[in-house]
# Entry
Amino acid sequence: MNPIVNLIADLISAVPSIAAIRRDIHAHPELCFEEIRTADLVAAKLTEWGIPVHRGMGKTGVVGVIQAGTSPRAIGLRADMDALPMQ
# Structure
């Protein structure tokens, strides 16, 4: 079976733990360029799931690379992980 399909199936079964990660990130908000804890958490989880990680883009950015075979085709997904300064 395709490794991407396997990865997606594994992630679907991990929905409860992914929801817990989301709740944890929201419980510990960090402002733009200060999201050290959040970046560490995201990088650790991607690594745990076997996804190669590149760090330090834009100071605290995290990039996970999921590749299928030898295809040069790519899809980029972007997500913010910083909080807004609200009282």
Observations:
- The two ends are 49 Å apart (CA to CA).
